[in-house]
Predict the 3D structure of the following.
Amino acid sequence: MRALMAGLILGAVMVAAVAWDALRAVRSPLEPPTTPTVLMLAPGTGWHALVAQLERDGWLSHPRDALYLRAYGRMLPESRTMKAGEYRIREPLSPRALLDLLISGDVIEYALTLIEGWRLRDALAAIRGHEAVAQSLPQDDAAAMARIAEVLDIDAGSPEGWLLPETYHFPRGTSDVELLKRAHTAMRGALEEAWAARRDELPLADPYELLIMASIVEKETGAPEERGRVAGVFTRRLERGMRLQTDPTVLYGRDPARSGRLLRRDLTTDTPYNTYTRHGLPPTPICLPGRASLHAAAQPADGSALYFVSRNDGTHKFSDTLAEHNRAVDRFQRGLP
């Protein structure tokens, strides 16, 4: 009888010791090898796999803690709702606090900025060069452009211009296609907004022509206060049947093997983008226009100017007549008095 009682007492003590040890394991902070540190939770990782990852990476103080934590996770249905991603761990966390963090989805986010005036190829290069983006597009530029047009469902002949220049935040592992879709959706929204607020009797047939006009405005001036005036010049030229005669379109349509400044032969070589030899808008946008250029194209400033020339300081001299414009060219481009 005494032996039985002794055995029962010993068993109870052992159970209590195990329970106490398990309680210690689930209440004590997990100790990452260094803090702060980054915990990467891969897609599809469950609680048991996470515990194995923590054990492998040296987060657990005792070998038996993995057993306790696996059992602990089985008692918590919410452990099945963890969200994949990178998490910044700034201090040791209890298992419960770690689980709460992984459920929250408060992952580390990265930023990618698309710049106003970039061509689509520039945006693609930035996406390809970002270390947190999962790459899926073909490496060949022509094949990549065709794939972009396909995934964005663009039937305008070219995906140029269809991304809104902004800063986009995203977690590691976001695909290049996901980013492109976000920027494209943002551009469609901004373009619809600008088109809905357009000036009456604007000489543009549809939102796509507005996008083309905005891309020209974007490339013609970096001075925010001039966008509306530049748009006004091109709008009046369209209304009067004049050629736009804008250098950025010629540059866009020039032989890609050529580089450097425009030459006289560039202005006389006919291409679909040469607005010196052809009337109307070019067939596609020539860059990614920002919201301000979309607004300017939709609501060009009133005025009578039909010409402008660079002052070589980021601004332009606007003129109403060709004679006045030629004098401005002599002064600002040729250095004549």
Observations:
- The CA atoms of residues 127 and 176 lie 6 Å apart.
